[in-house]
Specification:
Alpha-Beta Plaits; mainly alpha; 3 strands; Alpha-lytic protease prodomain-like; three-stranded mixed β-sheet; 9% strand
């Protein structure tokens, strides 16, 4: 098997593992929503909300793991990389809505606790640890950033279910029903902290902000230090998905250049672009006295 075949096989295998984890998680989420209602446990419903968010994360990771090999086309010339960020935004908004719902159910129960079915909670918690633990172990053996992020999601689920298990065992022996809604609030606040973190990461991507891992001023300064480059304007850096950055700029040269001199400038810019890890770059070179088209449009 050559390297390309091996890479394709590994890629397909990783997508298969994420797909298996998705269906496992989705099936169990349905069971825990029903189980949360039947056991009268807001903690289990809070974990169900967390798992539902993870189902979206798994679903989009599975879809984009399969799609990531696709190149750009006439409709999506940059390819499909930003779709995964959009999917993450959708699942984040869904988590926000479900978390607010869980808090609206749990907070009144802290003030007037109702008795959950502790035995039923224990059974669901053991199943939750087992299902999420199995999916996590399967994914942790795979390579690639996508599968590692998903495995981390599942690790959070395992820890959440272990907390539910501990509380449900305590409730079997001690009558403190308020523990259930308190745990629900703690799980939900943890989810909301991740929601805020995700939104802070995603919004600059959609608003085309310069990514934190690169400095626009530094790139412009490096280019302006090149021979025959008088100035750089219309310089922009944005990111497709938080990992793949794009750079565009207009260069004003100090005189009409020979073909070889153009080649030297292009080679120098290529090495600057590579050093800063840009996924894509477009640079327009303007001769002395040439009026920038973008400046014309601004007036």
């Amino acid at each position: 098997m050559n390297d390309q075949d091996h890479h394709g096989h590994a890629h397909h295998h990783a997508a298969g593992s994420i797909g298996a984890a998705f269906f496992l998680n989705l099936g169990f989420t349905v069971i825990e929503i029903v189980g949360g209602v039947l056991t009268n446990s807001t903690a289990i419903l809070a974990d169900a909300a967390h798992d539902l968010g993870d189902c979206f994360a798994l679903g989009q990771a599975w879809y984009f793991e399969r799609l990531s090999g696709e190149k750009g086309n006439a409709r999506y010339s940059y390819g499909y990389r930003r779709f995964s960020t959009f999917g993450a935004l959708v699942s984040t908004v869904l988590l926000l809505i479900s978390s607010i719902f869980i808090l609206s159910q749990a907070i009144p129960r802290i003030l007037s606790p109702s008795h959950p079915n502790a035995r039923g909670m224990v059974v669901l918690a053991i199943a939750g640890v087992a299902v999420n633990g199995f999916a996590m172990l399967r994914l942790s053996r795979e390579k690639g950033m996508n599968t590692k992020v998903v495995a981390l999601h599942l690790l959070e689920d395992v820890l959440g279910w272990m907390a539910v298990l501990v509380v449900s065992i305590v409730l079997l022996f001690v009558d403190i029903p308020v523990l259930d809604p308190i745990l629900a609030v703690l799980i939900t606040l943890y989810i909301l902290s991740n929601v805020v973190k995700n939104l802070k990461t995603m919004l600059p991507i959609f608003l085309q902000a310069v990514p934190d891992n690169v400095s626009l001023d530094t790139v412009v300064m490096e280019i302006e230090q090149l021979d025959h480059v008088r100035a750089v304007h219309q310089a922009h850096i944005w990111t497709l998905d938080g990992e793949h950055n794009v750079f565009t700029a207009h260069l004003e040269v100090d005189r009409h250049l020979e073909l070889e001199e153009y080649g030297c400038i292009k080679d120098s810019i290529r090495s600057i672009v590579n050093r800063h890890g840009f996924f894509h770059s477009t640079v327009e070179i303007e001769s002395p006295g040439e009026l920038c088209r973008n400046v014309q449009h601004q007036h």
